[in-house]
Amino acid sequence: MLEIRGLSTGYGNSDVIHDIDLSVGKGEILALIGANGAGKSTLVGAISGIIAVRTGEILLDGEPVRRLSPRARVQKGIAHVPEGRQVFAGLSVAENLRLGAYVVLPGMSSGELSSRIAEVCERFPILLGRMDEPAGNLSGGQQQMLAIARGLMARPRVLLLDEPSLGLSPILVAEIFRLVAALKQQGLAIVLSEQNARQSLAIADHGAVVENGRIVVSGSGAELLGRSDIAERYLGVGQGVGVADASRHAALVAKLRAIFPDADKGRTV
Ligand code: ATP
Fold it and tell me: Which of 87, 100, 194, 250 is the least crowded, having the fewest Cβ atoms under 10 Å away?
């Protein structure tokens, strides 16, 4: 359903994503795994159109979409649920959901809107009782559900999920992964960008490891889960540092550098 060919892009003068080839079919999950800064969000943003592609092609059911605006891509069936949820905290849950549909059809009738809200809330019943509350009142997990529900309001065929488990407790992470697996059963093609490699590969049909903007390994989810080199680097097994540990370390180092800007001159933190 979604095919990426030779995709490269970056920011300003720097190239971040290099010559990426990927595909994901109807009812499949493709997990993109890799450390902080590997380029996963850039790749996902290039697919949805919020980041301009430099070279390469993006095909949706064989039709090129690279030159379409982000909005036109949503209308064609590609929805992006961004990293960090990015719900509108001051707007109500219902208003956030309406915005997801507004992108597709600004003049959608209130009957159609209500039926779409009812449809997505079958998957996220927790949102039903909170419709009039500001989204900012929801917990992190509920906000993530709202962000996914907002994406589903467009009735996409391809769902791009960027780090949906970020910052959630283990119970909520398990809940989010269960939901993603259920969406696959519904027939969506899903690109799941995640640092939580173990759980994402466990539900994925295909996995791709992103390092420095390139796909360095790809295979079925089960294959990648079973590989000792992947386990050591990305699943926190053996001597290697897990991605989550590496990220926490990087965040701590950044915080220390902000407080003590000269502390690590000439040394390794
Ligand atoms: P994370 O999990 O932290 O989001 P990631 O794998 O999604 O990591 P990206 O966010 O795509 O990685 O970042 C890839 C590279 O692009 C990094 O070196 C990052 O610093 C750089 N980058 C990301 N966004 C920008 C931007 N807006 N301007 C310049 N460089 C950026």
Answer: 250
Q: How far is the CA of 183 from the centre of ligand 1 (A)?
A: 27
What does residue 209 show for φ and ψ, rounded to 5 degrees? -95, 125
For residue 38, give the ligand 1 atom closest to its CA.
Answer: 6
Mean pLDDT, each 10-residue run in order, the chain (269 residues): 96 93 97 92 96 96 95 95 90 94 79 89 91 94 94 96 91 92 95 92 95 94 88 62 48 53 43
**13, 15, 41, 243: which to mutate for ligand 1, most atoms within 8 A of CB?**
41
User: Cα separation of 7 and 266, whole Å?
Assistant: 38
pLDDT reported for residue 164: 94
Taking CA atoms only, the protein residue closest to ligand 1 atom 11 is 39
Backbone angles phi, psi at 226, to 5 degrees: -85, -5
Q: What does the domain layout of the chain look like in residue ranges?
A: 2-89+158-265
Q: List C-alpha distances in Å: 115 to 15, 123, 198.
A: 43, 14, 36
Write out the CATH class of domain 2-89+158-265: alpha beta
Cβ proximity of 93 and 146 under 8 Å = yes
